[in-house]
Specification:
Elements: H1 21-37, H2 39-59, E1 64-73, H3 81-90, H4 96-100, H5 110-114, H6 118-125, H7 145-152, H8 155-160, H9 180-197, E2 198-201, E3 209-216, H10 219-276, H11 286-322, E4 325-330, E5 337-338, H12 343-366
Antiparallel strand pairs: 1-3, 1-4, 1-5, 2-3
Length: 367
């Protein structure tokens, strides 16, 4: 007789519990109540957090932020009045557009990148340090901004006790060519400033306003570095934009002075030749020819001198138009803004953070 296998019992799928927001809130409230039931542990955590907060308050270095706002007024464009000046200069054989050399390399937002140039920051750090700019002791200072930076951040002591350096390091103001060790250490300072302490922005893309700020541990150092960097960059910016025009003006000025000297000599020579005609025998024609040649040379030199002077004045006018203006709107004012909070606020934040961490640990252990 054949035995039949019983059919397997069908499995009943588990029913997932329905999600309830009120239930989740109730569960959360129970966990909070449980955490507060351990108020002794939370109180101890709060006291420890307050102590740690006070310790951080006294250990944390104060950072001072110097902020400067400036506007860059670009040179006049080739259109409008510029085209009229170019047309006028073209009548005398001078190409103002070619002499200006305004290719736009330093125009617009490129100023932002220029302010972060390592060479300009290096030149700024190697300027004399004096908390009062304009003082007579400023030029006599033997300490540079780089020396003050190393002193404020304790780098001078670190270098002195280092096995690789092992000596006192000094950055003399105005000396851009440094030994290998000094230059390497200065490059580290420049890198730190560029990455963490120098901030440059353009608040409104439609306007020509720029904002630069420096955040350092010394109030005087932060303000001096900010203002000096802008001045160094401004001088480089204007010199680069107007270099070709300045060279052309100097060349024309030298030519005009030389022609004026020659014209004055020719004027005296022509006057002597004309005076000799009064006493000469009319039979001899040579004196008359000499007088005529002298007058002709004087007229030619006078015409050339007049054209050179016209070109010189046109170039000077173009130089004035092409020279950009960097106008400071807001300068750093003492006392500078710092990141220091009140001691009680720091202690309160430390206590709140540690109490929160302790509560999370208590709830986690209960589960």
């Amino acid at each position: 007789m054949q035995q039949t296998n019983p059919s397997p019992t069908p499995t009943i799928p588990e029913v997932e519990e329905e999600f309830s927001l009120s239930g989740q809130l109730l569960s959360l409230w129970k966990m909070i109540l449980y955490a507060f039931s351990k108020w002794q542990l939370l109180a101890i955590a709060g006291v420890i957090g307050a102590i740690l907060g006070l310790g951080y308050y006294f250990i944390k270095p104060v950072i001072y932020t110097a902020r400067i706002t400036f506007v860059v007024e670009e040179s006049k464009s080739a259109g409008g009045g510029g085209s009229l000046m170019s047309a006028l200069a073209g009548q005398f054989g001078v190409d103002i557009g070619g002499l200006s050399g305004t290719s736009g390399v330093l125009a617009g937002d490129n100023v932002l990148q220029l302010l972060k140039s390592k060479s300009l920051i290096k030149k700024t750090l190697l300027t004399p340090f004096n908390p009062i700019d304009g003082d007579t002791a400023f030029a006599k200072s033997t300490r540079s901004l780089a020396d003050e930076y190393a002193h404020v951040y304790g780098l001078d002591k670190k270098w002195l006790n280092s096995s690789k350096v092992g000596r006192a390091i000094s950055f003399k103001p105005g000396i851009l060519s440094l030994p290998r060790t000094e230059d390497s250490l200065l490059q580290r300072i420049i890198k730190k400033i560029t990455e963490k302490e120098l901030f440059i922005a353009k608040p409104d893309k439609k306007l020509g306003f720029f904002e630069m700020s420096t955040s350092m541990r010394s109030e005087a150092l932060s303000a001096l570095f900010c203002t000096r960097l802008l001045k160094t960059t401004t001088d480089f910016y204007i010199d680069t934009k107007t270099r070709r025009l300045v060279t052309n003006v100097q060349r024309l000025q030298l030519k005009a002075d030389s022609l004026l000297f020659a014209l004055n000599r020719k004027t005296f020579s022509s006057a002597d030749a004309n005076r000799m005609l009064l006493d000469v025998n009319p039979v001899f024609a040579a004196p008359a020819v000499n007088a005529e040649m002298s007058n002709r040379d004087k007229i030619i030199q006078g015409t050339i001198y007049a054209d050179i002077v016209k070109n010189l004045e046109i170039s000077k006018t173009s130089l004035i138009q092409e020279t950009p203006t960097v106008q400071v709107v807001d300068e750093p004012e003492f006392p500078l803004t710092d990141n220091a909070n009140d001691w009680w606020l720091t202690a309160l934040i430390g206590a709140a953070l540690l109490v929160l961490i302790a509560a999370v640990i208590i709830i986690a252990l209960k589960k």
